[in-house]
Amino acid sequence: MNITVRTRCVISFLILTTIALGVVAVYLEETLGEWSDAHVLSELRRYALTARALLEAQEEPLHNATVDALANLLGQDLTVRVTIIAADGTVMGDSLLDGEDLIAMENHAQRPEVLAAWQEGFGVNKHFSTTLSRPMLYVALPFHHVLGTSGVVRTAISLHDVQAIHTRLDWALFIGGLLFIAIWIPMSNLSTRWTFQPLRFIAAQVHSMVRGTQTSRLPVHGNDTLAGLATSLNLLAEEKEDMLTLLAHQKEQMTAVLQSMSEGVIAIDSQQQITLMNRSAIELLQLQENGLGRPIQQALPAPVIAALPLDTQSKVVHPHQEFTLPGPPERQLLAFITPLHGHPGSLIVLRDVTERRRLDRIQREFVANVSHELRTPISIIQASAQTLRESALEDPEYSRILTVAMERNAYRLGKIVADLLELSRLEANRDPVALHSFALLPLVEEAVALLQENADEKAITIQIALTEQSMVLTHPDLLHRILANFLDNAIKYTPAGSRLLVQLKPHGQRQRLEVIDNGQGIAPHHREHIFERFYRVDPGQNRHMGGTGLGLAIVKHLAERMGAEVGVEEVQPHGSLFWLAFPHTS
Ligand code: ADP
């Protein structure tokens, strides 16, 4: 049964009040009963004293007729029964009986109240009146008339009358109690309502605050218990809000950290259902959604599941697993799976190692290329020296050929080492250089002058299509090395009698320095790789021409250091266009 606190209070008050009323009623009943008995007794005594005083004041001798008349008169006035008994016990007068009935009354000498009156001067007794056939309370006093007559004057009242007084008293108490309850119930209802109203309001507010629908505070009036309760609850609500804010802040931070991680993070529970997945994991695995709540076998691609040792019960940290996700683009991923600390389940961390693997491969290829490039001239030098020592010293012509080969390959070795050193210097220091505005024409003329002799050897003409006003934002030394490389290649890889053109052209918002030749050109599939280290279109021809295959790789790094870009395009009907796009001047 669902009884409200208020009803419980009302019921408790009712029980307590009923008990209290009952105790009060019993006590009142007892006290008032005793008081009324004492009052009746004292009244009877007072009446007896009055009757005695009247009797003793009679001047004439006391005859039965006189005494009876007096008893009748007193009985009428005093509304009690008055009996006057002679010393021998004969009833001389009685307020209720007259004539024959009076004469017929039995002798009262042995009545206990009469005996007590004679012996102690005052007698009290309760007994059943045979004369009146009802229980009576008697009070008796002796009297002595001046003319010698003695006797006892007795007043009496019916115990029914006394009982009636008690009954009236009980009724009065009962009705008083009923009235009290009739008034008390609505009053207590009102008072509990009045008392509980603020409590009910507080309960409703607290409920709203707990459910988060209420952010304001409870009103605090005065400094009583309810005000204290409201203050405490407000403090509690404040602490709860602070705690929630802190938790939300921490959660936001955690989420931000997780979402900002370049590694993919996936948490699974003991049922292997996904409980967390960050943005990187979604991107790395190319998923449409985060798959929260779904079994990992359904949510993740098959290669991931195959690679993961999904033993969530194990407390052992598994070694990493590497696997390939078919693209496009194909990617190499590294997965770590570890048990979650303090929680059933596991944490999977995914790392994209595609780029690292590509760099590893390039590094391996580079080392292989360097070894290969160095081995060839070294072998030639070794073989030439050995032949010279063993047999060719006597043959001057043969010796000359061998020493020329040794010299050429030593030079080539030195050039490879020099280019490698420059490349490694440029890769180690990628800091951008300070750029300034320069007139382009003198810089181009300087580079052309350096290579004019080579061009003349092949009857190659170089045309410079620049005005003196052409200004660019550049670093003169880096620009010189880039331009020299472009021109050197153009002279090397174009047939004799070709024409070269150097010009400056706007390209979008930038300016491009272009070196155009009308040689054989470069096939598209070679153009893509031409700026890679050791890449050559025709390795045999290149070596013959003394190239190292590092020139354009160095050019690319030089351009990056000054914030520029380089590239190559084809020229119709044949030839190549190498360009350098200067940084945009804002
Ligand atoms: P190298 O030092 O061998 O010249 P580069 O990196 O400068 O190396 O050039 C790479 C390759 O690009 C060369 O081997 C050559 O095959 C090709 N190449 C460069 N410039 C030209 C050009 N103007 N015309 C045709 N082929 C070129």
SSE inventory with pairings:
Blueprint: H1 5-56, H2 64-78, E1 81-86, E2 91-94, H3 99-103, H4 112-120, E3 123-129, E4 134-144, E5 150-158, H5 159-211, H6 225-260, E6 264-268, E7 274-277, H7 279-285, H8 296-299, H9 302-307, E8 321-325, E9 331-339, E10 346-352, H10 354-390, H11 396-428, E11 436-439, H12 440-457, E12 461-465, E13 471-474, H13 476-492, E14 499-507, E15 510-517, H14 524-527, H15 539-544, H16 551-561, E16 565-570, E17 576-581
Parallel strand pairs: 12-14
Antiparallel strand pairs: 1-2, 1-5, 3-4, 4-5, 6-7, 6-10, 8-9, 9-10, 11-13, 14-15, 15-17, 16-17
Helix pairs in contact: 1-2, 1-5, 5-6, 10-11, 11-16, 12-13, 13-16
The structure holds adenosine-5'-diphosphate.
Question: What labels describe this entry?
Answer:
53% helix, 586 residues, Beta-Lactamase, 17 strands, five-stranded antiparallel β-sheet, alpha+beta, rod-shaped, binds adenosine-5'-diphosphate, 16 helices, 5 domains
